[in-house]
């Protein structure tokens, strides 16, 4: 039965929005009136996102990663339980907490009821469901294992979100310390240093070199702070424009992989995404070349993506995946060895899952080590800067005290 999105006014004069199933828009209006609602807008849910009013309602709104994981997990559970796809989508639409999610699921259901495949219906909402998501759903539909594929996909999204959250939380404290340090130093240089040092400037006393330097820096910041912000913003914008070009971005990503500390984090994060995605695609029965292409598209580092493109060419020519990746020396040796073991035993999926789990644990360990090392270094740096400012203020006082004696 088609779904219709509606806006109506209840007996208290409040606006009600939602989705209703009916044979036609006329029947939907009748059903709303039977519920004591005065319909204002009744339109097919499948076209709500393309209509002008639907575009206005969904402007700036998007399915969050948490909602995406929850939708995938619940849909997988309902399908594994034996519920038909359209009924499962109807259940999810009814129990959605946010209005946008309700309309989105109702729109997907309307397309499915109209004869569209689930992957085809998701393609109409590419903003909420990326290419890799739709590719996995399509593979599940073709192999008849949609429920199982969605379950593995939900595991992947939840693990990816958890890993990203752990990394963000680990770097939150150093970022907060850095911002507070910059604020304190700016306040000291722009207000405290001039107030104290100007007392000695009027006495025509020869100031120490460190005091002269701090006073000059203070005057510069007070007079040209806007220029500093403008230059920093300009450099940031120019850098983004340069990195948006394929050549410079590839060179930067190559350099990033070779960086002493950051390179290991970037390599590990992309390895986890690649191994997890390839494991899901392999379990869904996707051909190896298509699976490699889809897994390569999930990589954020263009240098590693280029390595996968080269590996695809080698696999197409008859080389095994483990040998194609080993020749590049970009991915961790553990991943290559586990893939080789999987190829020998005929169970590549399990080995890819193990590689993803191991690399994820290693990435967490490196992140915690880095942040644990950064915290005291930031505190020492802040203390050193404050010490210089204190010396710049105290040196004239000590010098004046010696002259008086």
UniProtKB/TrEMBL annotation:
It is found in: Cell membrane. The lineage of its organism: Bacteria, Pseudomonadati, Pseudomonadota, Betaproteobacteria, Burkholderiales. Belongs to the GSP F family. Keywords: Cell membrane, Membrane, Transmembrane, Transmembrane helix. Residues 71-194, 274-396 form the Type II secretion system protein GspF domain. NCBIfam families: GspF (TIGR02120). This is Type II secretion system inner membrane protein GspF. It is a multi-pass membrane protein. InterPro entries: GspF/PilC (IPR003004), T2SS_GspF (IPR011850), T2SS_GspF_dom (IPR018076), T2SS_GspF_sf (IPR042094). The chain crosses the membrane at residues 167-193, 223-239, 373-398. It holds the Pfam family T2SSF.
């Amino acid at each position: 039965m088609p779904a219709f999105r509606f806006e109506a006014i209840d007996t208290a004069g409040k606006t009600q929005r939602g989705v209703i199933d009916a044979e036609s828009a006329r029947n939907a209006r009748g059903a709303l009136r039977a519920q004591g609602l005065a319909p204002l807008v009744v339109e097919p849910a499948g076209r709500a996102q393309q209509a002008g009013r639907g575009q206005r309602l969904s402007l700036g709104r998007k399915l969050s990663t948490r909602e995406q994981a929850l939708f995938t997990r619940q849909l997988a559970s309902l399908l594994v339980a034996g519920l038909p796809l359209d009924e499962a989508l109807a259940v999810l639409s009814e129990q959605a907490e946010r209005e946008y999610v309700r309309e989105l699921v109702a729109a997907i259901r309307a397309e499915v009821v109209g004869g569209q495949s689930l992957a085809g219906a998701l393609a109409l909402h590419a903003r909420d469901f990326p290419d890799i998501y739709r590719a996995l759903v399509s593979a599940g539909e073709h192999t008849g294992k949609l429920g199982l594929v969605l379950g593995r996909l939900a595991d992947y999204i939840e693990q990816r979100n958890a890993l990203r959250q752990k990394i963000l939380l680990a770097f939150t404290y150093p970022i907060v310390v850095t911002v507070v340090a910059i604020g304190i130093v700016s306040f000291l240089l722009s207000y405290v240093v001039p107030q104290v040092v100007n007392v000695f400037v009027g006495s025509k006393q020869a100031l120490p070199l460190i005091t002269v330097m701090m006073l000059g820096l203070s005057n510069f910041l007070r007079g040209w702070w806007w220029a500093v912000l403008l230059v920093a913003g300009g450099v940031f914008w120019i850098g983004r424009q340069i990195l948006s070009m394929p050549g410079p971005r590839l060179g930067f990503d190559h350099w990033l992989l070779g960086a002493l500390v950051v390179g290991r984090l970037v390599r590990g994060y992309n390895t986890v995404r690649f191994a997890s995605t390839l494991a899901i695609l392999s379990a869904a029965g996707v051909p190896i070349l298509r699976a490699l292409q889809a897994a390569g598209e999930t990589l954020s580092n263009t240098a590693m993506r280029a390595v996968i493109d080269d590996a695809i060419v080698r696999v197409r020519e008859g080389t095994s995946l483990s040998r194609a990746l080993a020749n590049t020396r970009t991915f961790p040796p553990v991943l290559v060895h586990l893939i080789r073991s999987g190829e020998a035993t005929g169970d590549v999926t399990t080995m890819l899952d193990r590689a993803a789990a191991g690399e994820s644990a290693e990435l967490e360990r490196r992140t915690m080590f880095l942040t644990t090392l950064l915290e005291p270094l930031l505190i020492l740096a802040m203390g050193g800067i404050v010490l210089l400012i204190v010396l710049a203020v105290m040196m004239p006082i000590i010098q004046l005290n010696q002259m008086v004696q």
